[in-house]
């Protein structure tokens, strides 16, 4: 995700949507089977935050 500044707004929104869906699936998987892949959940949250931060920075400039 280091090239996040080079992505277009549409690409960033697509990343946010995909990562939110992945995070939702991880939450359901961990609730149902007891799977605890905390690192995957943490990285998904981090990538969502990075993309949203970049989108908001572009909007405010």
Feature tags:
79% helix; 0% strand; mainly alpha; elongated; 61 residues
Largest sheet: none
Number of alpha- plus pi-helical segments: 2
Span from first to last CA?
22 Å
Percent helix, as a range, is over 70%
The count of DSSP E runs of length 2 or more, i.e. the number of strands, is 0
Secondary-structure element order, as H and E? HH
Domains (count)? 1
- Principal-axes shape call: elongated
On the 0-100 scale, what is the average pLDDT? 89
Low-pLDDT segments: none
- From the structure provided, what is the oligomeric state, counting identical versus distinct chains? single chain
Computed Rg: 13 Å
Overall structural class, as computed from helix and strand content, comes to mainly alpha
Strand percentage: under 5%
Walk me through this protein's architecture.
By secondary structure, the chain is mainly α. The protein has helices spanning 9-33, 38-60. The chain has one domain (8-60). It is built from two helices and no strands. The longest helix has 25 residues, at 9-33. It is elongated and about 45 Å long.
């Amino acid at each position: 995700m280091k090239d996040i500044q080079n992505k277009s707004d549409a690409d960033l929104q697509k990343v946010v949507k995909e990562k939110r869906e992945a995070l939702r699936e991880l939450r359901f998987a961990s609730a149902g089977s007891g799977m605890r892949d905390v690192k995957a959940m943490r990285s998904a949250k981090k990538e969502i935050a990075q993309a949203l931060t970049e989108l908001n920075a572009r909007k405010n400039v």
